[in-house]
Amino acid sequence: MTDPYAVPDMDELLAQVRRQTDEVQRIQRSVEAMEVKAASRQNEVTVSLRGDGRFTSIDIDPRAIREYDARNLSEIVLEAVNAGLQKLAEASSAKFAPVIEASRSGQ
């Protein structure tokens, strides 16, 4: 049984915090470097975005430009953009999951 009045080893606690901070920074760099692609339901619009949230491309099928009015086309673009943001959020969460789980199990 552990002594509830024992003083924690501060050096070990600081080392653990440094390790976790280094791991989080490594994962953050990895997330920022990744690129995700997503599309609208019928692939009229495809988007690419980086892990830092910046869009690198939005491609619109020329047939969609002829087929839809501006209002409908803007909704299709929003659909693709939101799909890309959702995909990025899921990928980011997956990369951070091991750190989050480790911190929960360490409590």
UniProtKB/TrEMBL annotation:
Top-level division of the source organism's lineage: Bacteria
UniProt keyword ATP-binding, yes or no: no
Could you list this entry's UniProt keywords, alphabetically sorted. Answer: Coiled coil
Q: Does the keyword Coiled coil apply?
A: yes
| Coiled coil (residue ranges) | 10-37
Q: Which Pfam families match?
A: YbaB_DNA_bd
Q: Which NCBIfam families match?
A: DNA_YbaB_EbfC (TIGR00103)
Name the UniProt record assigns to this protein: YbaB/EbfC family nucleoid-associated protein
Give the originating organism.
Answer: Amycolatopsis rhabdoformis
